[in-house]
Amino acid sequence: MGYIEAMDKEFYYEDFEVGQQLRNRRDYTIDKESALAFAREYDPQLQHLDEEEAKASQFGALVVSGWHTAAATMRLKTETDLFKVANGLVGMGLESVRWPQPTKPGDSLRIVVTILEKRLSKSKPGFGVVKYKVETLNQRDEMVMEMVTAVLIPRRNS
Amino acid sequence: MGYIEAMDKEFYYEDFEVGQQLRNRRDYTIDKESALAFAREYDPQLQHLDEEEAKASQFGALVVSGWHTAAATMRLKTETDLFKVANGLVGMGLESVRWPQPTKPGDSLRIVVTILEKRLSKSKPGFGVVKYKVETLNQRDEMVMEMVTAVLIPRRNS
Q1: Going by C-beta distance under 8 Å and a sequence separation of 6 or more, which residues neighbour residue B6?
Q2: Which of A1, A24, A115, A147 lies 20 to 30 Å from A74, alpha-carbon distance?
Q3: Could you tell me how far CA A90 lies from the centroid of its own chain?
Q4: pTM above 0.90, yes or no
Q5: Does A71 touch chain B (CB under 8 A)?
Q6: How far is CA B68 from CA A87, A137, A150, B39, B146, in A?
Q7: Biggest alpha carbon–alpha carbon distance for chain B
């Protein structure tokens, strides 16, 4: 299966196929300053905030909040062709999220979106349901987050 | 089942029981300025950024990014007794996340954590696994997020 190329058109349910992969256009770097600012506001745990305490933690060093990795992943998703869908995506929640290892301050992240399943919606006749996986990778190609989610996408000519 | 009261002690696996509920100490308000700042950086979609475009969207008004609601929920979790666990929690990822309705700028959020299941860990003898649900509610008692997750918590005297 190939990658969807950037195109000047709007996408519909019919444009996605199982196995297809989509990628973001630019990596996103979480520098130490923004990692600390995010953690102070949303995840004030010592492994995210205090260099010395982090050394003694299970991580052995300062690590980025998993919710910061998740927010960066959302940003990266908006830079894929998923966000060329006509009238935008309608999220249906997340089926699972894992953080196999932490993001470190200074890491540059990218994502690979893989289409897992598609079916017509029973309750919304003009829409299809597309389930996909998002893998967030750092510059060493290590996976820092894996998420499975589904969205409603309009059908063409509906 | 009662609520765990704030105490000057560290919690262990044995201190949690199925059905028990935990709450945060202070509400967390997402004002419009911080909603826009978060969306610009992490979720630059029109329903989060542009008042006029948001009116024409499925939401009918400016709404806070679901990932901002999630980050606020993490903050609220750190203000519950879950974070009095000895040596900190070890997250095992999320089993599901739903956003039944959006947070609006200016909403004040609080959470209710309910312990769903507990069992001893097979792979980590000194630990138990505690599965819990987090409901995030606004000032009108409407649920804006529901999340199910599990954590490893150390056993007492292990």
Answers
A1: B25, B81
A2: A1
A3: 15
A4: yes
A5: yes
A6: 22, 22, 19, 8, 14
A7: 59
Judged by a CB distance cut-off of 8 A, whether residue A127 touches chain B is: no
Distance from CA of B33 to the nearest CA of A (A): 14
The pLDDT tens digits of the residues spanning A79-111 come to 998 888 877 777 889 999 999 999 999 999 999
- What is the identity of the amino acid at A158? S
For A7-154, CATH number out of 3.10.129.10, 3.30.565.10, 3.40.50.2300, 1.10.630.10 equals 3.10.129.10
For tokens 């089993």, name the residue. B95
CB contact under 8 A, A42 and B72: yes
Nearest CB to A42: which of B45, B57, B75?
A: B75
Q: Answer positive or negative: Cα dihedral of A55, A61, A62, A65.
A: negative
Q: Which of A40, A50, A58, A67 to mutate to test the interface with B (most CBs of B within 10 A)?
A: A67
| Contact with chain A for residue B127, Cβ under 8 A | no
For chain B, where are the alpha helices, taking DSSP H only?
32-42, 46-49, 51-56, 66-77
Residue A143 is inside which H or E element, if any? strand A143-154
ipTM of the complex as predicted: 0.91
Digit-coded pLDDT (tens) for B38-63: 999 999 998 999 999 899 888 899 99
Count of residues in chain A? 158
Which residue ranges make up each domain of chain B? 7-154
